[in-house]
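task queued by scheduler; priority normal; single chain, no ligands, no partner chains; default sampling; output format set to structure tokens
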Amino acid sequence: MKLSGFYGKNPKSTLEAVNITKSKFYNNIQEIIKESDILFITTPDDIISTIDNELLKFDLKNKSVCHTSGSLKSNVLCNAKHSGALIYSIHPIFAFSNKNMNLEEFEKTYFSVEGDIFENSIVLRLLKALGNNFFIRDKETSSTYHLANVFVSNLILSLLEIGISYFKTLGLSEEEALRAVKPLINGNIESIYSKGFVNSLTGPVLRGDIKTIEKHLSVLKDDDKKLYSLLSLNLLKLVALKNSEDLNTKEKEYSHSSVVNNEDILKNFLRSSKNHLEIYRILGGIE
């Protein structure tokens, strides 16, 4: 498959993309539609429906039209569908913070796809040809899917910024603080990749260190206390799960139920650990 080229409202950025990819600059949407089998709409989310309205005037039979929004369903392209196109939402699980991204990183990027999926469709053939991993999702899960991306990307950024803000109160600049925590952040991420969440646990919640948590609460900014408590309570659930997984095989075999939900695991764990029960209370788990 060959990239035909680009059409956009900003000639400068469009030409830049053309030069990088050694493809064609299109002066109008009609021309790029005529010469392409698959069309990608890579605009901000609120412009996608505007472009879709424009597609209503064209014959799109045997064409596939895709948008790259993770939060919008494929059926936002209803006019393209009405004009005969197969429609898709194809979303890369990657943070595009600027245009000068490392293409080697993009080669490792997972995609999700939702829309007119059928065996050997041209869009699936394209994804397979690219060599990237991908999975198919249902359009009704679009909000949940996008939420998952936001949690592990944007909200992690926000959480790290809050952590760095406390280093800055110690006199470090943002740049110095980021350099200092980089091994810690990377080490945690690598540990999660290799061992999973439960087996990567460290820190005072795992140890049942009541005094340390009380000291944290004493120096936290008021705006950060609720966030600290919520995240620590979630860690406590993981600690309980770790404790449950550490039970020997016989204890699991003779358990009264082979299926125990996480809430039950947490309750059982708190009954067996006074320190963790006290942490649970301190964090607001019990009024």
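post-processing summary
- Residues 248-259 have pLDDT under 50 and may be disordered.
- The first helix runs from residue 11 to 21.
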